[in-house]
Amino acid sequence: MMKRMFVTVILAAAVLMLASAPAYGQRHSKSADRSVMDAEKAYVDALVKGDHAALNNMLDSQYIFTNTEGSTLDRGAHLKRFEGGKYRFATKADIDDVKIRMSGTTMAFVTGRLNFWGADTPPADGHSRYTHVWVKKAGHWRLVSNHSHRVS
Questions:
Q1: 143: nearest Cα among 129, 128, 124, 130
Q2: pLDDT digits (tens, 9 = 90+) for 52-98
Q3: What domains does the chain contain, in order, with CATH numbers?
């Protein structure tokens, strides 16, 4: 009887702890979502403008990009493409179907669709689905990982 009561108390405590803990992917404040969305839009804007300085400020030192062809580029290789204004991802781009999932207050997982026109690589116009991982460091969102796949 005592063993059964002990097990019941332990299970009840575990359920209460799990129920009160923030869940992975739980929605947090709208201001957190807004600040991540602002970072997303700033990233797309920097790609369109070919803004090396802006990209340099938002890409984390551990940044890795898996592009639509399946190649991976580290931070240095990705930034090098934008040096001297030689490369612009597209002449116009926007994002939609964006979903933001927070893990705590310093990590965000973002999925969405990028729509682009006038891209430097074929096809010139199209769409890609993406996954971004952002971390908040020193009060600023930094892009750690970017995976993109073109879709029709």
A1: 130
A2: 999 999 999 999 999 888 999 999 999 999 998 778 788 999 999 99
A3: 25-151 (3.10.450.50)
| Single-letter code of the amino acid located at 104 | G
Question: Integer distance in angstroms from the first to the last C-alpha of the chain?
Answer: 63
pLDDT given at position 88? 75
Joined tokens for residue 97: 């179907």
* Cα 101 from chain centre: 9
123 prior amide bond cis, ω within 30: yes
Q: How many helices (H) and strands (E) does the chain have?
A: 4, 6
Is 87:61 a contact under the CB 8 Å cutoff?
no
CA–CA dist 47, 65 (Å, integer): 13
Q: Which amino acid is present at 33?
A: D
**How many whole angstroms separate alpha carbon 23 and alpha carbon 95?**
27
Query: Six-digit token pair at 18?
Result: 């799990």
Mean pLDDT for all residues in the chain? 84
